[in-house]
Amino acid sequence: MNATAPQRSLIIIGAGIAGLSAGVYAQMNGYHTRIYEMHNQAGGLCTAWKRKGYTVDGCIHWLVGSSPQDAFYPLWEEVGLIQGRQFIYQEELMRYASRGGREFIFYTDLDRLEAHLLELAPEDAALIRTFIADTRRMMHMKNAPGEPPELRTLFDNLKGMAEMLPLMGVFRRWGGMDLSGFAKKFANPFLREVFGNILYPNFSLMALMVVMVWLHKKAAGYPLGGSLPMAQAVESRFRQLGGEIHYNARVKKILVENDQAVGVLLENGQEERADDIISAADGHATLFEMLDGRYVDDSLAAFYRSAPLFPPIMYIGMGVNRRMDDVPHSVSGTMLALDQPITVAGQQVDHLDVHVFNFDPSLAPPGKTVMTVLFPTSYEYWKERYAEKERYDAEKQEAALAVVRALESRFAGLERDVEMIDVATPVTFERYTGNWKASWEGWMITPQTMMKRLPKRLPRLKNFWMIGQWVQPGGGLPTGVVHGRQIVQILCRRDGKPFTTSRP
């Protein structure tokens, strides 16, 4: 590229971690970048909110790459997210508490986990030892993001395949299995119950094994202060580099001329133009509303019709007037099987995912604690109720009170001590993030979708790109920073200039 060529301009739709990261890398590489965000703050799903002196965190359980030895750590440094962050490494990933009072402890240390599983189910010793041994083998798997797939050579791909050869046996044994299939392998009825309920039945077992490796290696810690400070740190880095963010600026349409993206039309009628457009927003809205479905081929349309999503959830934050030091610290809390199921949104709820943040005093006033509870619920039900705001609000509170009563047997005196309740329904997630069907993390990671990558570019549409959780199943913060980095690497290659991770 000629050194005197004018600076190219970018518009990024969405100020989640993917959009912010793309903006940071773009500014470092000499592009003029504007981000348009529908909400009034950065972060997207990486967020938190304050209620009556409590902070309800809506996102983070662990951050992949929290260790300086991990391949993701330099990326977090590049975008300014990790500097000054203090991490906690828990001894437990989660617990499962059955109706009969039995508990399974999912230790983050693989040796402790293996011993615990063998103690609970000696009849399944062969299965347990094979599973843990294969999880240990995965510790040698490289997780460095490397070159974007779009820029990799045949040699790069062959090298990657060669590196995976030692794990072919692991992939053969577990690659096609989800948690429901794994649960059925156990002779022990309690472990069949555990693995059938701790996450989602169709969740990829290998994806869980990857999480186990990160936690065992202490490469995925919980950041004190939670989600929002991390998003704000990346936003600050972007602004320091000269980037612009416009809030309360929802993009209605992507402007296209002669099959080339040239700008965006905001909801207020304002048009903004740029050389390249990057959508880090909801995938369905981008493809079928902003672009009117004109550039969706049969393969992409079929994926949107049939691929499973992370289901919409009810998310209840509670401020509790006690320390709750007696509750074990855990990465993801306890999956609690209720003695008496409750009914919410016309559906029976028999398990609650309960997270007690007694390890992060910054989220609550002194001597008090934040708890969160989540469970799947009906998007359609809450969407219909939202049309009658009074009824909607009343049913939210009814659901919250039913949950508090259901937890009383586990946490004696909870009804008395709860002094703040905040309820987010699927409509809440949709309103603030625009996520399709209120899915909180996009495409579900199943055995069929785990290795799936949707195109960052659309056929026949020039100067347009898509990044984030709707381009790669599983989503999460690592996908956001990797995509943000990769899309700028692609632009730099196209524009004939070296990619850099330092300020120009």
> Can you list the strand order of the major beta sheet?
8-7-16-17-18-15-19
Instruction: Please compute the radius of gyration using only Cα atoms.
Output: 23 Å
List low-confidence stretches. none
Secondary-structure class = alpha/beta
Oligomer: single chain
**CATH-defined topology of the largest domain:** FAD/NAD(P)-binding domain
CATH superfamily of the largest domain: FAD/NAD(P)-binding domain
Largest sheet: 7 strands, mixed
CATH second-level architecture of the largest domain: 3-Layer(bba) Sandwich
Q: What general form does the structure show?
A: globular
Structure commentary:
This protein is α/β, with parallel strands linked by helices and 504 residues long. The chain has a seven-stranded mixed sheet with strand order 8-7-16-17-18-15-19, with helices on both faces. Strands 10-2-1-14-20 form a five-stranded parallel sheet, covered by helices on one side. Helix content is 35%, strand content 21%. The model has no long low-confidence stretch (mean pLDDT 94). The chain starts with 8 loop residues before the first strand and ends in a 10-residue tail after the last helix. It contains 17 helices and 20 strands. The chain folds into three domains: 189 residues, 3-Layer(bba) Sandwich (FAD/NAD(P)-binding domain); 106 residues, no CATH class; 124 residues, no CATH class.
Topology:
Blueprint: E1 9-13, H1 17-28, E2 32-36, E3 48-51, E4 54-57, E5 63-64, H2 73-79, E6 87-88, E7 92-97, E8 103-107, H3 110-120, H4 125-137, H5 154-164, H6 168-174, H7 179-184, H8 189-197, H9 205-216, E9 220-223, H10 228-240, E10 244-246, E11 251-257, E12 260-266, E13 271-273, E14 276-279, H11 283-290, H12 298-306, E15 313-320, E16 334-344, E17 347-356, E18 369-376, H13 379-386, H14 389-407, H15 414-417, E19 418-424, H16 426-433, E20 464-466, H17 476-494
Parallel strand pairs: 1-2, 1-14, 2-10, 7-16, 14-20
Antiparallel strand pairs: 3-4, 5-9, 6-9, 7-8, 11-12, 12-13, 15-18, 15-19, 16-17, 17-18
